[in-house]
Request: fold
Amino acid sequence: MENTAVKLKVKLDGYMEDTQGRLVPVGMVSEIDKTRDDLIYEIVSQAEDLSKILGDFKKGVMDDIAAFISLSAEKYGAEIGGEKGNVTLMSFDGKYKIVRSISDRIEFDERLQVAKELIDECITEWSDGSRDEVKVLINDAFYVDKKGKLNTNRILGLRRLNITDEKWKQAMDAIGESITVSGSKAYVRIYERRTDGAYKQINLDLAAL
Reply:
């Protein structure tokens, strides 16, 4: 099946579309620009093919693991994995293991703002000096990244702080009540045992190779 990049290239045969969407006759484009364009489209074409292969591979692995779990549950009358569907499968010789994990996608509703206001009041009431470390943790927890997203783990981490202030406890309750689960995401990781006995993940991340 021909991918998107190749189809677009064929559709514009005889012309090249510039960054403003204008069709420019190929004869008016310099050789270095055409060579660069060909190189980029070739790489993109390969990347799209590879992305589809990896997507199909992940789906196949997930389906196979789910089928095995169902088979095992039927055979032994027990389920493999915890409440969230996490499971580790080990080869008979222990050389390889496959880990499937499913994590919830957590978001916060408007009550998080109530929690932030309560926390700000705590900071104002507390004396300076002894709580400086907590202030840093709070500022980091509510830091918004370039995409406008909060760091869920840092916010939830505030609830683990041993602070007995009643207003702080109210803020932590508000954080807990503001949590909503908007979905879940499944991950699969494959490991190989090294000669030292430790397991090393077989890397399928292009950026990490």
Remarks:
- The first strand starts at residue 15 and ends at 17.
- Residues 95 and 195 are 10 Å apart (CA to CA).
